Amino acid sequence: MSNSETSGLDSLWKMRSELQRAERARTEHLKVLLRHSIFIFLGNIAGSVTLAVGFWTTARQSLLITWLLVMIIFNLTRWLAARRLPTGFIDEAQTRFWEKLFVASVAISGVLWGAAGGLFYVPDQPEQGLFLALLIVGMCSAATSSLSYHRIAYPVFLLPAITPIMLHLIADETLAANAIGLVIPFYFTLLYLLSREIYRTAHESIIERINSQYQANFDHLTGVANRRGFEEAMEREWYRAMRDNHVLSLIIADIDNFKRCNDTHGYEAGDLVLKSVAVLLEQHIRRGADLVARIGGGEFAIILPATDLHGAVALAKSIRLDMRKLANNDDKEMFRVTMNFGVSSLVPDSSIDERLLFRQADAAVYKAKKKGKDRIAYLGIG
């Protein structure tokens, strides 16, 4: 393999691991935000009730009650929805779904508070107007800490919430109201900058923690999961499949004569083979829950949640075909790579030993080896 190809593989490996960690950080930010949902819920309810009590004798009561009920129902629904966030592994698709749901709820909350600023402001009653302004400004200020774990959540809430009351204050005939209305943009610009700083600090902390976990669970040569990462993922996916009554499949792929490659061509050539195989395996998985791991010297595993035996065998055949293309490249220095594949599939339940899937896949790859090189064998249910 040429130096340019080696550099390309190293770059792809580095980019892939960085993307994985960035996506994990996105998920961790979301988890923190939704863990704060109880405080957001209580804060909004307290603010809504305070507004209703303060305007009970001056605002139209039917409108006030309607707004208060909408706020209570919306915030209760949002809090209950946040409690449904899965506590275990969350894949990329789930992260994006929950993130969109969260940002939409933040925008709706901002619109509801903005509606209060538009509906209940009375120009000829300065005390009531300033009370309303103080309450909405206080809610927006409090949101700085609770929403700053997301890149855009704070401005998404702030702009619709503060704009109506700010415009009312600027248009008011009293000098005090005008002064407050004109100061608000400057004040919240500072809070927005503070929000960005909170996000940056939190993001750096999350990335540092993920990097520590990554170092412990990933193979430094190939960039895929190591044996420890594989075992943790297998345990997680086993219990998730058992909970959802879904099939779980496992492929074990073993490089043929890998020890001979190291002995004949040197460990540097062997490392290039391992990197090439890792890249090829990862190119064949399409879902965030699928996992490639290096579990031995020249042995890899692919965990395939919600994939039946037919699908797992088809994937193994596709990898084997592309492995032949890798072996038949024009670079004579590249060790000709073939692999034997053992495939296993089953639906986990409490009566089955969680190591059974691995034992079946391991037995299948041994069966493939007995038949010769470049073979596929399988055990399990369809």
Describe it for me?
It is a single chain. By secondary structure, the chain is of the alpha+beta class. It folds into two domains: 17-215; 223-380, 2-Layer Sandwich (Alpha-Beta Plaits), CATH 3.30.70.270. 69% of the residues lie in helices and 8% in strands. It contains twelve helices and five strands. The protein has helices at 3-35, 37-54, 61-82, 92-119, 126-147, 153-171, 175-217, 227-244, 258-265, 267-283, 309-327, 356-371; strands spanning 248-255, 291-294, 299-305, 339-346, 376-380. Strands 2-3-1-4-5 form a five-stranded mixed beta sheet, with helices on both faces. Helix 12 links the parallel strand 4 (339-346) and strand 5 (376-380). Helix 1 (3-35) packs across helix 7 and helix 2 (37-54) runs antiparallel to helix 3. The radius of gyration is 29 Å and the shape is elongated. The model is unreliable at 1-6 (pLDDT under 50).
